[in-house]
Amino acid sequence: MAISMILDNLQHVKSEAINSEKYIQKLISSLPIEAMRALNVEENVLIKCKDGSPSIKIPEDVVEVGASAFKNCEKLETIIISDSVKSLGNESFRGCKSLRSLNLPNNVKHVGESSFRDCINLTELVVTNPEIEIGERAFENCANLSSVTLPDGMAEIYGGVFNSCKALREIKLPEKLTILGESSLADCIRIKKIEVPDNVTKIDDM
User: Fold this and answer.
1) For tag attachment on the chain, is the N or C end more exposed, with fewer CB atoms within 10 Å?
2) CA–CA distance from 95 to each of 47, 88, 181 (Å)?
């Protein structure tokens, strides 16, 4: 769309009368943000996304979403994670204040530290891979997170993962959970009761 808009404009301009490079850059800068939304991918790693679209599907060739790739993309409401993605880097979606729900498919094996921290309007989280590693403070301060579904085979919840998720009323801990990390459920002020599975051998200061 953006390229076609540029070409349409160039058809009406004689190249000898202008500096074509400067003119093209001027046209690009005048385009709406939505038209210029770009995903910067290098060697199967999504490096950066420009804010401007409420819905984004990560391309099928992307294996990793890099650190801070979507950080503070405040208009982003929906993210579709393709089957090729294995890892989400540290702070990859931190501060995406309009993000409403998140489904982490079975192919995602690693979620970095603070990856969805401060996504204050996230209300629903579904995790499907029992072998996933979710880094510390991954969902800290997701103040409206009220529904969390974790796979029964998940063995560890790292420190601070759900810290300050103040809307969370209940959470079913995985049956095979062995470790609850420090402050993993701290300041979840609406949770009244937690059933701890029999397999848990270590509970740090929650």
Assistant:
1) N
2) 17, 15, 23
